[in-house]
Specification:
By secondary structure, the protein is an alpha/beta fold. It has two domains: 248 residues, Aldehyde Dehydrogenase, Chain A, domain 1; 195 residues, Aldehyde Dehydrogenase, Chain A, domain 2, CATH 3.40.309. The chain has 15 helices and 25 strands. The strands form seven sheets. Strands 15-18-19-14-13-21-22 form a seven-stranded mixed β-sheet, with helices on both faces. A six-stranded mixed β-sheet has the order 10-9-8-11-12-24, with helices on both faces. Strands 1-5-4 form a three-stranded mixed β-sheet, with no helix packed on it. Helix 2 runs antiparallel to helix 4. It starts with a strand and ends with a strand. The protein binds ligand TXE.
Length: 480
């Protein structure tokens, strides 16, 4: 039984409590590793290490910091296979997905910020003949980074890389449900020679470790990705302490399909945007709105394509969907399907747990599910399910579908399918979302601002947005 360790002050150490959390493999339901059940004493050690490492780390040139990030990116790429397998076993996602998306993106996150920091600049404002204003963007200190279980290493590194590049030191906590690749990352940081204390990884529960990071007075900046409810809990602690806060939260994203779309491309992509990663991506399009004139055709084709998806052992290269991350989350998803039935929905395909043979007979698998016949304001269409469940609804007009699309508390992402360019720009402009994809989905340029509005979060990650988040702007005004 593998027992992983915290990474504090450059060393791999057990939790002070010497107690551990059992970590199951979602595909088999069996406990396969032990995770430190850390608490506040471990966080205090980590923050002290980070604070002690901060002066030297922030004094290094951006080129020197970039070289460490590049080395880590190279090691992540070197260990692609090992990390992909670890991610698949820990999260339940197909190993093919971890290999194609999760791990390469983790390496890209480090590589991107290794170069972005070298291009990072600020501005000057001359007051003709009177004064010169210049803006400094200095690192802040110890940054807290807390990440979720759905894209474990991908989202974990998406916070850590810019924080380190900007000159901060970090105390990071991955989800207790998927800690493995964060642990393997700490081994690679040691191999890359990252100075002790620059990055510290403390494993454990959110209400213990995550909460201790959030309320620590020497952690002035926090970056969180996870559920909206947890985001509110963190904000309630951080706000009165005047901490800088970035919150990437849930979504209930519309996928709007007009009759004039490129139908085959839309259908292929909509299968992905509905069920990729078992639908456990905050950017998935879980509410599908189809123009009335093509609704029946789309319904027939989409249901057939959904029914043909392969849900199987995540380690099988043919699997298109793997296991749900935890038994509790699987039960939450199935409870929403039952709710949909009670709200008048018709389950067109899926809607139940899938029982496999052999190695995965005790795993947690849910069939990709398509539901129609629900009102736009029912709970199933208002609340984030975060599983392989989508709803279908027809619409008659642009105004009507914009009302549906914008009619939830969330505002993270949206997809839009039409060949009418004028309409595409008009609808995109009216959608309440931080990210709008037109005739595509999950096409990502890391330079772009990433994040949502309303209950999908506060602030933006990505590009220079993240470097500005992890620095403080100081205006210096020099009398001439
Ligand atoms: O998130 P949580 P989970 C949504 C999705 C999912 C729900 C819960 O609806 O069902 O959030 O998922 C740590 N103080 N998304 O359980 O609970 C926790 O240990 C500080 C959307 O993953 O929010 C973990 O490391 N930290 C999201 C992290 O917060 C706390 C992706 C996320 O846990 C804490 C994932 C606390 N009080 C889930 N409580 C997206 N937008 O991508 C927990 N944590």
């Amino acid at each position: 039984m593998q027992s992983i360790k915290n990474y504090i002050n450059g060393e791999l150490v057990d939790p002070i409590s010497e107690t551990f959390i059992e970590n199951p493999d979602p595909a088999t339901g069996a406990i396969y590793s032990l995770v430190p059940d850390s608490d506040e004493p471990d966080v205090l050690k980590a923050v002290t290490s980070a604070a002690e490492a901060y002066p030297a780390w922030s004094d290094r040139s951006s080129l020197e910091r970039a070289s460490f990030l590049s080395s880590i990116a190279g090691l992540l790429r070197r260990d692609l296979e090992r990390l992909s397998l670890a991610e698949s076993v820990d999260n339940g996602k197909p190993v093919s997905l971890a290999r194609a998306i999760d791990i390469p993106r983790a390496a890209s996150n480090f590589e991107f910020y290794a170069t972005a920091i070298q291009q990072f600049s600020s501005e000057a404002h001359p007051m003709e003949g009177t004064a010169l204003n210049y803006t400094l963007r200095n690192p802040i200190g110890v940054a807290g980074c807390i990440s979720p279980w759905n894209l474990p290493l991908y989202l974990f590194t998406w916070k850590i890389a810019p924080a380190l590049a900007a000159g901060n030191c970090v105390v990071a906590k991955p989800s207790e449900l998927t800690p493995m690749t964060a642990y393997l990352l700490s081994e690679l940081c040691i191999e890359a020679g990252l100075p002790p204390g620059v990055l510290n990884i403390v494993h454990g529960y959110g209400h213990k470790v995550g909460s201790a990071i959030t309320r620590h007075p020497d952690v002035p900046v926090l970056s969180f990705t996870g559920g909206t409810k947890t985001g509110a809990t963190i904000a309630a602690t951080a706000a009165p302490m005047f901490k800088k806060l970035s919150l990437e939260l849930g979504g209930k994203n519309p996928n709007i399909i007009f009759a004039d779309c490129d139908y085959d491309t839309m259908l292929d992509t909509t299968i992905r945007s509905s069920f990729a990663n078992q639908g456990e991506i905050c950017l998935c399009g879980s509410r599908i709105y189809v123009e009335q004139s093509i609704y029946d055709k789309f319904r027939r084709d989409f249901v057939a394509r959904t029914a043909a998806l392969t849900i199987d052992d995540p380690l099988d290269e043919k699997s298109q969907l793997g296991a749900i991350v935890s038994k509790a989350h699987m039960e939450k998803i199935l409870a929403y399907v039952e709710l949909a039935r009670q709200e008048g929905g018709e389950i067109l395909v899926g809607g139940k747990q899938v029982y496999l043979e052999g190695r995965c007979r005790d795993g947690w698998f849910v069939a990709p599910t398509v539901i129609e016949g629900l009102s736009s304001d029912c709970r199933t269409n208002q609340e984030e399910i975060f599983g392989p469940v989508v709803t279908l609804s027809p619409f008659e007009s642009e105004e009507e579908v914009l009302g549906f699309a914008n009619g939830t508390a969330y505002g993270l992402a949206a997809s839009l399918w039409t060949e009418n360019l004028t309409r595409a720009h008009r609808v995109a402009n009216h959608l309440q979302a931080g990210i709008v994809w037109i005739n595509c989905w999950m096409l990502r340029d890391l330079r772009t601002p990433f994040g949502g509005m309303k209950q999908s979060g506060v602030g933006r990650e990505g590009g220079i947005e993240a470097l500005r988040f992890f620095t403080e702007a100081k205006n210096v005004c020099v009398k001439i």
